[in-house]
Amino acid sequence: MALAARVLVSYGNRGIVETSDGKRMVCSYRRSVGRPYCGDRVAVEMTGDDQVLLVGIEPRDNEFARANARFQKQVIAANLDQVLVVIAPEPLPSTDLVERYLVAIHSLGISPVIVLNKSELVAQRSTATDNPLSHLDEYRELGYPVLATSCKGEPGTKTLWPVLTEKTSILVGQSGVGKSSLINQIIPDLDLQTGELSRVTGKGTHTTTTTIMYALPCAGRLIDSPGVWEYGLWRMEPRELEDGFIDFHPFDGQCKFNDCRHAGEPGCAILTAVEQGQIKRWRYQSYLRLLEQNR
User: Which fold has domain 238-293?
Assistant: First the structure.
C-alpha cells in the first residue's frame, strides 16, 4: 500500500522522505517515475526487503528555480508558500539581484519577502544609489515586506516568526549574507534535525551544498538552499519578465502596440509612466537590463 510522504532532501537517485506520522526514511527513485525535488508531495511503497521506493509524485503547486550555466531552468524546490530573499550590507548585492529574484517569485504566483540581514552594519556602509539597499523604502512602497534581522544583536530573528508561522518557505540569497547563521537561530534543534538526516542516510548531509527542508517550532517548514554568487534567470518571454514588475501592472494593455516590449517603442505606456514619475526610473532601467540579458 502506498504511503503519502514529503521529500526533505533529494540527491541523485534517492532522497529522504517524511511520512505524515513523522517517520523519515531513505527512498530510492524509479527512473520511470522521475526525480522529485525538495518539498515534493510523493507516494512511496515498502518493498519485501524493507526498501522504500518512490511510486508517484503529486502535482506541484509551483517550482522555484534558477538558471544553470546554459540559462536553462533548474528547479531546486517545490510547493512553496513564499520565498525569503536575504540580502546584506556585506557582501553588497548587485544592482539587479533583487529584481531577478522578484521576477522568479512572481512567476510562481506566490509571495516574496525581502530580509535585510546583518542590519547592524547598515549605518557603517555607504551604498551606491543604484544598489538594492538604497531602495528598501521604495520596495516597501510597492508592497513588499522588508524585514530587518541580525544574528549579533537586535532585532535578532524575531521579525521573521510572524511570516514563517504555518507556511512553507525557502530562504535564498548570495553566499556570505548569513543564511546559515539565520537558520541556526531560527531552528533551535537544527543540530538534532541534521543529525537525524545524517543518521537516516548514513552520511553527512552537506548542508551548505544541498537543498534541505526543516521543521520549524511555529508549525511551518523552512527550506534552506545553497548560497550562490549571483542568482540568474532562465530564458523567459518578455511578457513573463514584465509580469515580475508589479509597478507596470496598472498600465497593462495601454501601449500602442500589443507586442510592445517597453524598450523604446512609440506609444509605450510604461515609458510614459516613467517620464511622469508613476514608475521609478531605476526600476525601469533594471527591467531594460534584464530584458537585454534575456535575449
Answer: Ribonucleotide Reductase Protein R1; domain 1 (1.10.40)
Q: Which of 157, 193, 9 is nearest to 84 (CA)?
A: 157
Cα–Cα dist 44/53, whole Å: 5
| Whole-structure pTM value | 0.91
- What amino acid occupies position 172? V
CB 4 within 8 Å of CB 40: no
Residue type, 55: V
* CATH fold of the domain at 63-224: Rossmann fold (3.40.50)
The CATH architecture one would assign to domain 3-57 is: Beta Barrel (2.40)
Q: Cα-flanking dihedrals φ and ψ of residue 26, to 5°?
A: -75, 135
Cβ atoms of residues 286 and 139 within 8 Å = no
The distance between the two most distant Cα atoms of the chain, rounded to a whole number of Å, is: 70
Question: Domain boundaries in the chain?
Answer: 3-57, 63-224, 238-293
Per-residue pLDDT at 260: 95
**Proportion of the chain above pLDDT 90, given as a percent:** 68
In this model, does residue 178 exceed pLDDT 70?
A: yes
Q: How many CB atoms lie within 10 A of CB 220?
A: 19
- Are the beta carbons of 64 and 83 closer than 8 angstroms? yes
Say if CB 183 and CB 190 are below 8 A apart.
yes
Higher-pLDDT residue of 279 and 217 is: 279
